[in-house]
Amino acid sequence: MSGPQIVLVGPMGVGKTTVGALLAERLDTGYRDTDADIVAAEGREISDIFFDDGEQHFRELERAAVRTALAEHSGVVALGGGAVLDEDTRELLAGLPVVYLSMEANEAVRRTGLGLARPLLAINPRQQWKLLMEERRSLYTEVARAVVPTDERAPEEVAEAVIEALDLGAAAVPGAAPDADPSATPGKAPGKENHA
Can you state the percent helix, strand and coil of the chain, rounding each to 5? Predict the structure, then answer.
């Protein structure tokens, strides 16, 4: 099989890193985060790259990091929140098992406080988050094979929903997920919404 088993996209703070690591454990494979790749290569935080060199320079680094990760990594890959803004990146994602992890603004505030380490949210974070989502939501949906809502769900539940949405249950390692039982939350749909 060429390319990643799962590619996670979605807004900042949605939990791509946490869910991605859980998925990699469940599927007994590796995990890669393109934001972490950029930080490792540059030797500085993303917020510093933004402030020192500007968003355009960061997006160039991001485009290259995504291309490399998608070409090299066969496990779970998480992309930065703005990676889908790049048309070339969207083309690379076509046909891959991409899952859009979604959440509403209230959940974003609850989880992250729309933290200071996020350069695009430095001024009026709640309003900026909403504007970013207006710009990006359709792009996340465009590249996604499935959409999995994360609101009021534990990371383990989200990981299970991703596995179900991509029909990867047979590939999951028994016992690797800590007590995740999606049936334990009545009325919660598994989040399977196909956009093939």
Answer: 55, 10, 35
Cα separations in angstroms, 96 against 1, 4, 9: 11, 8, 12
Alpha-carbon distance 169 to 91, whole Å? Answer: 27
Structure token pair of residue 130: 């909403």
What is d(CA 82, CA 26) in angstroms, rounded to the nearest whole number?
27
Name the β-bridge partners of 77: 7, 32
pTM more than 0.90: no
Token pair for 70? 């998608």
Residues 156-195 pLDDT 10s: 999 999 999 999 977 776 655 444 443 333 333 333 333 3
